[in-house]
Here is the input.
Amino acid sequence: MIKTDYFLRMLEEFFKAISRLINKDVKDRTDEELKSIYTQYVGDFELLRNFSSDEAIAYAKDQWSEERRISKLEMLAELWYIESTFKEHPLSDILLEKSLSLFCFVDNNSLEYSVARKNKINTIQKLVAKSAS
Here is the structure.
């Protein structure tokens, strides 16, 4: 019970940190802030940021406990998505595609249905399609 409460609190803090970042003007967002969120909530910035979605899933299976794996993968997908909003093409496109793939994996493997996740997937699909055209 205590572990569950701690992890739920960590998720809440993660989304507060993300909210603070996305509420800043795009030009005011920094890699250092993003790096700090990666490090604090999911792990090594350089390693995780540069993984493909398949590599991130394999890493998660090896490194993260089963009860936290899907939530941490969703946090990583969210970080990739947020980073895509203030990076230039082609990096932004790569991050969007990785984020979409990971959100879809989470959606297919989570025991919890999430309207917010479905909406995020839909939004990213539209952004990817727009970028491809």
Residues 48 and 56 are 7 Å apart (CA to CA). Helices lie at 2-22, 31-41, 45-50, 53-63, 66-84, 91-109, 115-132. The chain has a mean pLDDT of 88.
